[in-house]
Amino acid sequence: GDSVTQMEGPVTLSEEAFLTINCTYTATGYPSLFWYVQYPGEGLQLLLKATKADDKGSNKGFEATYRKETTSFHLEKGSVQVSDSAVYFCALSESGGSYIPTFGRGTSLIVHP
Amino acid sequence: ETGVTQTPRHLVMGMTNKKSLKCEQHLGHNAMYWYKQSAKKPLELMFVYNFKEQTENNSVPSRFSPECPNSSHLFLHLHTLQPEDSALYLCASSPRRGAGNEQYFGPGTRLTVT
Known about the structure:
The complex is a heterodimer. Chain A is an all-beta fold. Chain A is built from no helices and twelve strands. Chain B has strands at about 5, 10-15, 20-25, 30-35, 45-50, 55, 65-70, 75-80, 85-95, 105, 110-114. The termini of chain B are far apart. Chains A and B meet through β5 and β6 of A and β10 of B.
């Protein structure tokens, strides 16, 4: 079946540091890929998405590129802020089959001033 | 109200109680979902509704009973719960059930079973 693997957290960074959160996936078809963010006390919200190979999703300074050859969708940001502290979830949804979304376990990011 | 709303935000119930969680989406979407989020565990999909019809039941115990009277409202009826059911219950919606459709989540209901 489909699966999403994220690096374990927490990831702890100082403000203005470079961020990478790794995400790799296994899928039988041609999935769409997503990054969601969950701030404390809130539900998940879409951060960015990519629907086909080589697409780059971007939002709020975050970027991720759909790499079919390495089955990866790593999240990056050039300069993190304290307000980026949250839990980040990588997810996929297949284009065929049941369309049921598959989520990674989430990676907690803590940014210190 | 905009987006996806959930009520109540917090709920404490005994194991013999019956309660209901409510979700409402104001986005004109046709698919709605219930998830369970527990500490140290992956997000668990519970139920999926597409155009008011249940399309997925992810082996959820019968003490959880969903109801979707229309595409805008989703309920989760709870009865004789166990302490291990304590978790954050998230509702989500999407334009339809399908790939490429991002999900829009509510803030969740924090449930504590005593």
